[in-house]
Prior knowledge:
The protein has helices spanning 20-34, 43-53, 72-81, 100-109, 128-136, 165-183, 234-244, 261-270, 293-304, 321-333, 335-338, 375-389, 402-406, and strands at residues 2-3, 41-42, 61-66, 85-90, 93-98, 115-123, 149-156, 188-189, 196-202, 207-212, 251-254, 313-318, 341-345, 358-362, 393-399, 414-418, 421-426. By secondary structure, the chain is α/β, with parallel strands linked by helices. The strands form three sheets. An eight-stranded mixed beta sheet has the order 4-5-3-6-10-9-7-8. Helix 5 packs parallel to helix 6 (165-183). The longest helix is centred in the middle third of the chain and has 19 residues, at 165-183. The radius of gyration is 26 Å and the shape is elongated.
Amino acid sequence: NRLCRGSRVRVPFTAPIISNKRILSLAKSVKLFCVRVVDNLPLQNLKKRLLAIFPTKKHIVKLIAKTLFGAEELLSEELKSLGATEVEVQRRAVSCSADKKTLYKICYQSRLAIRVMILLSEFKADNENELYKGVRSIEWNTIIPQGKTVFIDYISFSQNIDNTSYVAQTVYDAISDQMLTVEERCPRSDNDNPDLLINVHVTDERVAVSVDAVGASLNRRGYRSDNIEVATNEVLAAILVDLSGWKPTQALVDPMCGAGTICIEAAMKARRIPAAKYRRYAFGFENMSDFDSALWESVKNEADSQINHIKLNIVGSDIDTDAIDLAKTTILENKEHFSDIRISRCSIKEQTRMTQEGVVLTCPPYNADETRRGLNDFYKEITYHLSHNFPDFDVWIYSPAREALDNIEFQAAEDIRISDGSLRLYPF
C-alpha cells in the first residue's frame, strides 16, 4: 500500500493510438520521477502527482455505425442525441467521432444501429505486401489483451487484392508479427466464438481496418431467445416505429403482430428502455485493452435511471398460435416494462372497431404460401378490413412484396424504401 525507495513501479499505457515513442518517453519520465520519491510516500499521493504531470485527455475515436438501407438519416439523429460528433451519413452506415463514454452509450442505447465499428487505420494498398505493412503498422499490442482470441472478417472489392482466405491469413500474420515484436505474444484465432472481430474492408482506393465494438449484432436484444426465428428483425421494427411517427399518447395496433416485435420495440422507445437492457452477450469493447469497467457501469446506470413507466395503449394480434404464445411469453418474462402490451389471437376480420385516433403499423405475410389465396387478393382484403375497423388511424404497411402493395386500391400518401421492402402510409 505504500511506495518505498527501491520499489519497482509498473505503469500500463493502454490507449490504442499512443505511439511506442510516446510510451517510452512517458516511461522514462515516470522513472525519473519515481527515483526521487521519498520513503513511505502514500501511493495515492503519487497518483495525484503523476496525474498533475500527465493530465488525462478524452480519447476520441472514429466510429462506423451500420444500419439498414433507408434508415441512415434516422440513425444519424440518434447518434447526435447520444453525444456523437462529426456525424456523416453513408450508404447503410453513419460515421461519427466519439469518446469512450459516448461509444459505450451508443452500444447500450442505440435502437437503430446493427453494428458499431471502431476505425483503427486507413491506408492504400495495391498488393498483399502493402496490405501486410499497413496492418502491421497498427499497434495491436495496445488493443488486444493477453489471452484474447480474434477473427479476421475480410472482404475485398479491389481488382489487385483477391478476396481469399489466404489474404485473411496475411492480415492475421501482420497482427501476430507486430505483437510478437513488441511483447513476444500473439492472439489465437477463433472462427466460432472470438473475443474480438477484426474487420478489413478493401477497395481500389483504400483499406479500412476496424475492430467490432459490439460482438453479437445489436438486433439480438435479449428479451427473447436468440434461437427463435422471427419474421421482423428487431432493428427493422424499431426503424418502422420511428418512421410511423407514433407517439406514446396514441394507440398502436399491429393486427398481424407475429411474435410481437413491433409492439415490444414501440414500448421500449416510449419508456426509454435501453436497447441492450436485456442483452445476454458481452460487447466487443469489453475485450479490448482499454476497457473501463467503472465507466461502463456508470453509463448503464445513467441510462437505466431514465426508464419511465408511462401508461401505454399497445395492441397486437395474429392467427398464428405459436407466434402469439411466443409474444405472450416474452411479455410475461419482462412484465415490469411490457405489461401494457395486450396480445390476443384473432384474425384481421375479427378486429374490434376502434374510433379513437392512433397508428396501425404492421408487416403482413409476403409469401404466398402463408396465405390461403394469392398475395394480391390477400392485400386487398386486409386493407378493406383496416379501413373499416380503423377509420381515424394512420395505417402503415411494410412489405418486401412491392407488387402486392401495388394492388391495394387505396392511394398511398407516402412510400418509403427500407431495407428490401417498402413502408407505405394509407390515411384511411
